[in-house]
Amino acid sequence: MRSIWNGAISFGLVSIPIKLVNATENHSIHFRQIHLADGGRIRYRKVCELDEEEVQGDEIGKAYEDADGTMIPITDEDLAQLPLPTAKTIEIVAFVPADQIDPLQMDAAYYLSANGVPAAKPYTLLREALKRSNKVAVAKYALRGRERLGMLRVVDDVIAMHGLLWPDEIRAPEGVAPDGDVTVRDAELDLADALMDTLGEVDMDSLHDDYREAVEELIAAKASGETMRPAESGDDGGGKVIDLIAALENSVRAAKKSRGGEGAGAEGQSDGEMADVHPIKKTSGKPAGKPSAQTTKKSTTAAKKSAPESTGAKKSTSTTKKATGSRSTAKKTAKKTAKKTAAKKQTSSGGGTGTKKTASSRKRASA
Predict the structure, then answer these.
(1) Which of 29, 130, 167, 265 sits at a 20 to 30 Å CA gap from 243?
(2) In whole angstroms, what is the distance from residue 278 CA to residue 314 CA?
């Protein structure tokens, strides 16, 4: 990787020659401005306001505009003569716990590479000291014409530096929080916790820029003369008043489904998930039996009107007759069974009376 700055780390009395290398890169897709009428490129030309002539880069310098509009020229030589100790040095001023650095201050990131063989030993010393202390180094350095604040930490076996904004560059969040007192119920917090647990963690390496990929596909399709089908527009629910509890419950269900149904039962429903409830149809209080003649006539008439003369209709009629016959047979069998039971009871009762009469006759004969 190409270095963008050469200097040294000032670590007390230790000086570590280093090279500054970009740790990040921008993958954004950049567009050019064109003339819609003919597709010609639109360029920005640097023109002097006094003579209205285009000026080349080597003829352009810096100036500070005063309050009254006066331009005060500032040359690179003027800036080089400033008493700036961090002009070529990353000066470490303190070692602090990492949680003392406000993430809002984070800016660009760089890798610090040891510049030459003599730098390897002090470089390794600083790296191992940062590892063992579990701290980060706060440093000051100058880059691109201004002094900056930085944070040094260890990434694998490399010292990385994050550019930091100065504390006075962080704006206070005044007027950003919602107005008024908002109360959050415990049930809503419980559902929010459940949603956080369901979403779980993510492999940061698996995340990618879907929008950039879609733009690349669009460019490829345009270049080959194809037409891209517009994506379906989704309703983001903006401006709508929602039921927070219902939204959280639906989010938990959707997250569980997207995670592969973790904890799902046999029917694909997660533990603790509310099932859909369907009302039971009310039935008539009349006992099931033979339908009335009027009902039978109506059913027969409706069947004749709606059913076409086809094989399916004949089969349906046949099936109905079989079912009716089966019900009749079942009723006859039930009546026969009832008669037999009654006969048995009657027989049993009669036998008991005859036995008593026989015993009485025997006693008279004996007398």
Answers:
(1) 265
(2) 35
pLDDT for 338: 56
- pLDDT at res. 80: 74
Q: What are phi and psi of 128, to 5 degrees?
A: -70, -35
What predicted TM-score, i.e. pTM, was given to this entire model?
0.57
Residue partners of 273: CB distance under 8 A and separation at least 6: 253, 256
Give the tens place of pLDDT for each residue, 175-192: 888 888 888 889 889 988
Of 6, 143, 166, nearest in space to 84 by CA? 143
Give the pair of three-digit tokens for residue 292. Answer: 């009335």
Hey, which bits of the chain come out as E strands? 3-11, 14-22, 62-65, 71-74, 89-97, 106-114, 135-143, 146-155, 158-164
Q: Work out the angle between the directed axes of helices 186-199 and 244-258 (0-180°, nearest 10).
A: 20
**151 within 8 A of 164, measured Cβ to Cβ:** yes
Q: Confirm if 166 and 106 have CB atoms less than 8 A apart.
A: no
CA-to-CA separations, 241 to 233, 237, 246, in angstroms, rounded: 20, 9, 12
Give Cα separations from 18 to 86, 91, 112 (angstroms).
Answer: 14, 12, 6
Please give the Cα distance from 253 to 269 (Å, whole number): 9
* Burial of 163: CB neighbours in 10 Å, binned 0-12, 13-18, 19+: middle
Residue 57 CB burial class (10 angstroms; 0-12, 13-18, ≥19): exposed
Output phi, psi for 51, to 5 deg: -105, 0
DSSP 251-269: HHHHHHHHTT-TTB-TTS-
Rg of the chain (C-alpha set):
45
pLDDT tens per residue across span 325-358: 545 554 555 555 555 555 554 444 444 444 444 4
Helix (H) or strand (E) holding 350: helix 311-366
Please state, as a whole number, how many other Cβ atoms lie within 10 Å of the Cβ of residue 141.
23
